[in-house]
Amino acid sequence: MTEKPKIALYWCSSCGGCEESVVDLAEDLLTVAAAVDIVFWPVAMDFKYKDVVAMNDGQLAATLINGAIRMGEQEHMAKILRKKSRLLIAHGSCAHLGGVVGLANFYPREALLNRVYQEVPTINNPRGILPQLEAMDSGRKVTLPDFHDTVKALDQVVEVDYYIPGCPPTPELIKEAIMMVLEDRLLPKGSVLADKKALCDTCPRRDSKPDKLRITEFKRVYETAWDPTKCFLEEGIVCLGPATRGGCAARCINANMPCRGCFGPTENVRDQGAKSSSFLASIIDMTDEEALKKAADSIPDPGGLFYRYGLASSILRGKLTPKRS
Amino acid sequence: MSKRITIDPITRLEGHGKIEIFLDDHRDVESVYFQVPELRGFEKFCEGRAAEEMPTLTQKICGVCPTAHHTASSKALDDLFGVEPPPAAKKLRELMYNAFMFEDHLLHFYFLGGPDFIVGPMAPRATRNILGVIDKVGVEMGKKVLDIRKRVRGVNALVSGSALYPVCGLPGGVSKALTEEDRAEIRGVTRDAVEFAKLTLNIFDDVVLNHRGLVKWLTSDVFCHRTYYLGLVDDHDRVNFYDGKIRVVDPNGKEFVKFEAKDYLEHLEERVEPWSYQKILYLKNIGWKGFIDGQDSGVFRVAPLARLNASKGMATPLAQAEYEKMFHALGGKPVHNTLAYHWARLIEVLYAAERMDELVRDEELTSPHIRNLSHHTPKEGVGVCEAPRGTLLHHYETDEKAIVKKLNLLVATQNNAAAICMSIEKAARAAIKGGDISNGKLNVVEMAFRAYDPCLACATHCLPGKMPTMVHVYDRETKG
Question: What does the angle CA A186 – CA A192 – CA A194 come to, to the nearest 5 degrees?
C-alpha cells in the first residue's frame, strides 16, 4: 500500500474560525481523513512542535496556514512549515490579506499594549506591568514571543502557493483546495481559489440593481430600515459587493446584511480599499462641492470599512508608526 | 539539577498556549506556568470604528464562539442606542444562541475534551481525537455526531446568515425574519437535537460513570478546587445563556452577590502578569490573594459547572432532571470537581436542545416585526451573555455619531484564567513524580485545562517556587 500524502493545518494570529470551517466539512472530513494523513493540527490532534521540527524538508504534501503574522512564534512556525511543505496554502482572510486583526496596523504597538494592560476600566495594574519577552519569576526565566510592530499577511513572511479567501472560507472551497492537491490538478502558482469576478455578479439581488446607481447620501444600518429584496446600494447602504471577490455563497446578503469584503479584491485588483472608494465615489450623483463633502462624510470610518480585511496587505499597509528603538 | 518540561503547543483547544513545568531536585514538580503567547488587541483597534459594525467585527475574536461575541455585542448596541428589540427578535436571537451552544458544546465533547474519556486518557496520542472517537463509537454513531452538528449549524445559518459567523445582529433587533417554511425545517432538527442530547448523556454514563477508574478521577481531589462560581440566571435563578442577572455563589453555595451587567465594574477586576499576554479576572470585593482557592480568595470560576453551581436549576424538564441527578451523584451543591465540567456541559446541551424546541413552537417567532429603530443619541452600552466558556461582557463608549471611542471586553476564558492555572498545577504535581512523564502523564496535565474548554485569547501562570536551571526535558511520547 502506498503511503498517504501528509498534510498539516496550523493557525497563527487567528480566531479559530478557519479551523471550524474544516470541521464543518462534516462527513466530507471523513473522506479527507481517509485520503490523507493529518500529521499536525493543534486544534484537534495531539502532535507537538517537536514533531514538526523532526520532519524532513518537503515531507508534507501541503500545509494550510490560517491567521496573520503578529507574534515572533507565528513567523517562526510559518517558516518551518514552509520548509517542510511542498505546497503552502494561505487559508482564510487573515493569512490571505492580514484580515480583521490587520486593523491593528492603524495603531502603534505601544498603544495596543497600553490599552489592553493599563487603561481598560477593569484593570488594577498600579505598577504598569506589561508582558515581557523574558520575565524572571522567583529566579525562573519564563519567555514569551515578541509582539511585532505590525500585522503581516502570510506571503509577507514566506512564499505562498495558493490562497483560499474568506472569513471564513466556505467548507466547499476548503474541500476543493485539498482535492486539487490530492488529484494533482494544480492551478498556476499564486491563484486565489474562488470566483474571479465580484460578488455583485452572482448576488441574489442582482436583478434589482439599476443600470446606473445614483446616490446622494449613504445611510448607516442603525438609522434605517431597508427593503430585504433590493440591492443595498440602491437603498443607499454601503455594500462592498462590487469590489469584493465572489465565491462566498452570498452568506451576508442572504441574511439581509451588506457585504463587508471578506473575500478580498477581485482578480487583477491590487487594493480592495482603493477600489471600494473609487467605486462608491463613481455612484455619488452630485457635483456641488458642499454636497459631495456631505455625501463622503455620510460614510463613517472609511479606512476601517474599506480595509476591514485587507489593511495589512494594502498599498497603505497601515499607519506609519515610529520603529522601536 | 532541576529540570524543565515543556508542553508546546497544548492541543485540542481553541487558541495558542504552552505549559512550562519546573522540577525540583527530586524531579518532582516545583512550579508550573500556563502561558498564552498571543495578543491581538481588539480593545484598541476597534476604537474609531462605527458602533453598528461591532457585532460582526468583535466576533472575529473567536471563530469557535463567534455567536457569543455577536450576541453580547448586539445587546451592547441595544443598550447603546436605547432600543428594546421586539419579542420575535429576542426569540430569534435566543434560538440562534441555543443552537450555537448545542453544537459548540458537542464540538468539545466529541472533538476536543471528550476523546480523553471516550478513547482514554492514556491512549496513544495519534488516536486521542475525533477519528479515534469514531473508531471507538462506530462509524454510524460518528456520522450521527457530524450530521447533527451540521444540521444544527444549518439552523444558525438560516436564522443568522452563516453557520459560523452570524451577521444578523442590529441594535433593536435582527436583520431577517423567519418564515413558516423555515420554522418547519427547524422543527425537524430540534426534535432530533433533543434525542441526540439524551444519547450523548447515555454515552457519558457508559464511558465515564460506569468506569470505576474514571469515576475515581471525576471525584478525585487532584481535580478539585473550592472556588466562587459565577453565571447568568433568570428571574427564578435558573440558568439562562441569553439574558439575566449575574449571580455569584461562594464555595459553600451561598449567594455572594447578584448584579446587573452594567454594574460589572463594581464587582470585577483584572490583573497583569509579566509572563503572559493573558489578564486574570477576580472578584474585586474580595481581592486578589494569589493562585489559591477558598472563601478568602477572589478566584472564581465560570462556564458549565459554574453556571449550574451558581443557579438553582434548569428551565427545561429533562435538563432539570439531569441537573438533579448530577448534584445527587456528586454529593450536593456546589460541586468543586473540575472534571464534572464535562458532565455539566452535556446537561447544558440537553437544555439548549429543549429550549430550541420550545422556541421553535412559539407563535411569535415568525412575526415580521423583528426590529425597532432607535431615536436615542448613543453614548455608552453594556451587553452580556453566557458564552460556552463562561460569562462574556462587551462595553462600548461612543461619540454622538456612534463612533467607538472606548471599548472593554471581559472574555469568557479570562474569568477562568486563575482557576485553569491552579488546576494544571495541581494535576502536574499529582501526575509527575521523580521526573517520570511516561504513559501519557503529560496528557493528564492537559486534561486539567481541557475540562474548562478554554478559548485562549487567554493565559496565565502558576505558583512561584525555587531557582531552576534551563534544561528541556522532552516527553518520551512526543520524541519522534
Answer: 95
The whole-angstrom separation of Cα B220 and Cα B444 is 13
Would you list the DSSP string of B131-148?
Answer: HHHHHHH-HHHHHHHHHH
Nearest CA to CA, how far is A221 from chain B (Å)? 7
3-class SS of residue B181: helix
CB atoms within 10 A of CB B183: 16
The partner residues of B239 in beta bridges, in order of sequence, read B233
Residue B129's closest CA among A241, A39, A236, A276? A39
What pTM was estimated for this model as a whole? 0.95
pLDDT (tens place) for every residue of chain B, 480 residues total: 458 999 999 999 888 888 999 999 999 999 999 888 888 999 999 999 999 999 999 999 998 899 999 999 999 999 999 999 999 999 999 999 999 999 999 999 999 999 999 999 999 999 999 999 999 999 999 999 999 999 999 999 999 988 889 999 999 999 999 999 999 999 999 999 999 999 999 999 999 999 999 999 999 999 999 999 999 999 999 999 999 999 999 999 999 999 999 999 999 999 998 888 888 999 999 999 999 999 999 999 999 999 999 999 999 999 999 999 999 999 999 999 999 999 999 999 999 999 999 999 999 999 999 999 999 999 999 999 999 999 999 999 999 999 999 999 998 888 999 999 999 999 999 999 999 988 789 999 999 999 999 887 433 323 322 222 222 333 333 332
Nearest CA of chain A to the CA of B417: how many Å? 15
Q: Round to the nearest angstrom and report the end-to-end CA distance of chain B.
A: 25
CA–CA separation, B90 and B365 (whole Å):
9
| Closest in B38, B170, B395 to A71, CB measured | B38
Which among B66, B268, B402 has CB closest to A17?
A: B66
**B contact test, residue of A7, A10, A15, A220 with most B CBs within 10 A:** A15
For residue B209 the three cell numbers come to 460513570
Closest CA to A137 of B33, B424, B417: B33
For B170, phi then psi, to 5°, come to -130, 155
**Residue A153 dihedral angles phi and psi, to the nearest 5°:** -75, 165
**Angle between helices B340-360 and B87-107 in degrees, nearest 10:** 150
B233 SS3 class = strand
Per-residue CA distances from A269 to A95, A106, A194, A245 (Å)? 18, 22, 15, 10
Task: Report chain A residues whose CB lies below 8 A from the CB of B134.
Answer: 30
Nearest to A148 by CA among A69, A228, A220, A243: A69
> Roughly how many angstroms between the first and final C-alpha of chain A, as a whole number?
57
CA–CA dist A236, A227 (Å, integer): 11
- The DSSP string of A169-232 is PPHHHHHHHHHHHHTT-PPPTT-BSS-SSBGGGG-TTGGGS-SS--BS--B-GGG----TTS-T
A325/B377 Cα distance (integer angstroms): 44
Residue A111 identity: A
Type and span of the H or E element at A277:
helix A272-283
Domains in chain A with CATH codes: 6-100+151-192 (3.40.50.700), 109-148 (no CATH), 199-306 (no CATH)
**Closest residue in B to A248 (Cα–Cα):** B162
CB-based contact B183:B365 (threshold 8 Å): yes
Q: Which of A21, A24, A30, A48 should one mutate to test binding to chain B, selecting the residue with the greatest count of B CBs within 10 A? A: A48
